Amino acid sequence: MDWIEKRAELSREKTAIIDIHYDRKLSYKDLNVQANRWVQIFLSHRIKKGDRVAVIASNRAELFEIMFACGKIGAIFVPLNWRLSEEELTYIITDCSPSLIIFQEKFYEKAKALSDDRLPLISISNPPLTEVKTEQKWENHYLEEDPWMIIYTGGTTGRPKGVVLSYRAVIWNAINTIVSWGLTEDEVTLNYMPLFHSGGINALSIPILFNGGTVVIGDQFHPSEALLNLNKYQCTIALFVPTMYHMMQQTEEFEKLDFPSMKVFLSGGAPCPFPIYEKFVKRGLPFREGYGLTEAGPNNFYIPTMKAMEKWGSVGKPMMFNEVKIVDDQGKEVAGSEVGELLIRGKHVFTEYWNNQQATAKTLENGWLHTGDYARRDQDGYYYIVGRKKDVIITGGENVYPSEIEQWLLQHEAIDEATVVGIPDEKWGERIVAFVSFKGEELQKDELKKYCEKKLAKFKVPKEFVPLDQLPKTPVGKIDKKALIKSVTNDSKT
């Protein structure tokens, strides 16, 4: 079913998308018409069901037009991370073999290098077709399990993997989010999350469009501007990653503005530091944390706002139409509040990794998605994400979860940001290293050690503290642990 056309019939004049940077406002009728225009462009280039359409562009309304156009004819939408190097993008293009590349003008040189004069290139703001058959309908010859989009992972553990999301997965994530979170057609969200990432596309944007609400698109994130826009556009719900909230809470606007239309501020992408919770509580602003990954939705849990304020760090309980369990290293469900790997099952789960059967088989077993994240469940049935399985530090035979140390460091009034990693060590197996930045005067290493010893067992106290002016970030705003580990290991070799 072409559901954006159906939504255009139901909510014809309702505002679907507001593009802040490019000053565009699209009703659902407009969005459907523009999607039809892109279909005609695709057909003029002989794009058919199953062909990949790659797009390299920053956040803008056209990405939704192209996404829905692909959905109308069964083509596969492949948004590219424009922050990647030419070499990294070349790998992705080779992997997914698109039939067309659509580019934003400022990325023309990258797009030209990727096409190598063999792939057709189309400008996103100046496509060749201007006449549009506004009432054109397209026959849908695809099935629910067919691919709609391929979202490439960040490649933090190696080469990027192409996560294949079917029509079924995208639609069921939307249904699950609407039903479990109680979304209505009156929702307005402000999205600065990159639209080459599942968080930008599927966390809130698609569910809200599916339900007839409004998506406000921001391009480059500026904390003060984002806070002002929440009020300007009367937003009701918005998702930001913890580093964005960290920046927002340092502005005058956060302290001075009221947000009368906001039902909830959502945090995702990484565990949220407790000081962020504290500042929302102090302001009396509704705040809660979520959990997801590209391979699953990305929405999987729900927690009421009042309960989130009581159970800091919990992502809540599983949503209506998915199942979760926590298992040990032998695949058996753990008892009580024991820590184990989180597994997820549901119609919102991805189909496969594109051209990577080995990784698919490792991640999907008997219908269960192995998330690679450790979690625990409390006595009331609320879930907590402990950390990435690959990030767990084994030092002197003891398992250490970095998030526990990070949360304690971040509660120190002098520390601005902190992250913890494990570095190979001949004596300990791995040694614990903490990277920290400060709000003002730098703390000495012995002060940091004594502070950690107040709360943490001796084997959990970092062996090293590395001060930095600023911690490096990934394109989606997470602290880049891979880059930090690389910096330490490279230093030890010189």
TrEMBL record:
Domain AMP-binding enzyme C-terminal span(s) in chain numbering: 404-478
For molecular function, the Gene Ontology terms on record are:
medium-chain fatty acid-CoA ligase activity
Q: Which domain of life is it from?
A: Bacteria
The entry's keywords: Ligase
Q: Which residues form the AMP-dependent synthetase/ligase domain?
A: 5-354
Tell me if ATP-binding is a UniProt keyword of this record. Answer: no
Family the entry assigns: Belongs to the ATP-dependent AMP-binding enzyme family.
Protein name as it appears in the record:
Long-chain fatty acid--CoA ligase
Q: Which organism does this sequence originate in?
A: Fervidibacillus halotolerans
